[in-house]
Amino acid sequence: MTSGWPELPGQAEVVVIGGGVMGSSIAFHLAEAGVRDVVVVEKDELGSGSTCKAAGGVRAQFSDELNIRLGARSLELFRRFPQRPGQEIDLHQVGYLFLLSSDDDVTAFERNVDLQNSLGVPSRMVTAEEARRMSPLIETDGLLAAAFSPDDGHCTPESVVLGYATAARRFGARFCTRTAVRSIVGTGSDSFRVETGRGSVSTPTVVCAAGAWSREIGAMVGVDLPVSPLRRQVMFTEPLPELHDQVTPFTIDFDSTFYFHREGPGLLFGMSDPDETPGFKLDVSDAWLPRLTEAIGRRAPRLLDVGVRTGWAGLYEVTPDHNALIGSAGRFFYATGFSGHGFLQGPAVGEVVRDLVLGREPFVDVSALDASRFAAGQARPELNCV
Ligand SMILES: Cc1cc2nc3c(=O)[nH]c(=O)nc-3n(C[C@H](O)[C@H](O)[C@H](O)COP(=O)(O)OP(=O)(O)OC[C@H]3O[C@@H](n4cnc5c(N)ncnc54)[C@H](O)[C@@H]3O)c2cc1C
User: Fold this and answer.
1) Which GO terms describe its cellular component (predicted)?
2) Relative to the CA of 167, which of 32, 151, 253, 303 has its CA 20 to 30 Å away?
């Protein structure tokens, strides 16, 4: 995607830093609500950070009530995306299937399912055999049970960014790409000058949606945003003819974190690497292959015979408790640190940040996600992470 606004304006009502799913969703929701001069500054191209590297998974199966609510609300908004903001996003609500092979995980997921059900999410526990019928590529050795929710699924991240950015522009928002924020200067009690490589813009309100790069943006205004970049890789297989008509849920071996979902005639698959260390590493590494091969061999051995077409590395934006940072310090707002589930929360968080900026009450109270929780000893762990 290329820049539609080569010139950075001198003034804006709101400056959003970052043009990923969060920045574009926040810009759309603010512009749609009538905020006239929303300016998004993006150092590269729209979606070029973590968003377009994402596996596209969307779900409401979490352990934390806040994440369940944000995920479920986002699913609703993804479903209506072709009408509002008006973009086809290739949404496949094929369900998420978490495969569980320890008693502790089964107990934890049973608890999660109860909580999800109490919030209207139609998840349920299924037997290992039922899981295999749903996702025939899997082996059930060592599998005790699984958790499934039919509303979950996956869609296309670049289409989501495109949809929000196109509609936000229709409401008057400007997207200035190739525009890196270098510093933020406080110019009075509630005003800022955001200085970029292409000039500066004055504004009463800044929103940081800078993903893995948020810590340095927070530091510019003296706000500690504890977000670390962590490399994650995905791969895409050659076509699997036997998948032809098969509806395949987004399948996750929770123990190893190996996961896969349909991507055209083949599969997308990935896994976390416990040996990975924080850093802005975007080169593809082979270090994860022995562990990945072992996990595939155990849970979906058929995939070992399928060729790999391509793959890439992207960055998770990780916080100490694997939960987001959403809040503000004066008129500096932030929505970041989604720790691997930011794509799926983009629509709901766009609504929440719109309401925080406009002084309205959001549909869900996110005050527990304020970045000050760590200093206050109130970390809020999300346990259902992959
Ligand atoms: C391999 C992989 C798989 C994933 N799978 C999923 C998934 O299935 N489901 C899910 O929900 N999430 C997934 N994620 C996580 C998801 O991609 C992120 O949580 C989400 O994209 C975060 O969106 P964002 O807008 O906050 O950040 P980003 O998309 O990274 O956007 C931040 C933007 O800020 C810009 N920026 C940074 N610094 C500056 C600056 N100084 N000036 C101007 N601009 C700046 C960056 O260039 C970037 O474009 C995955 C991530 C990876 C890497």
Assistant:
1) cytoplasm
2) 151
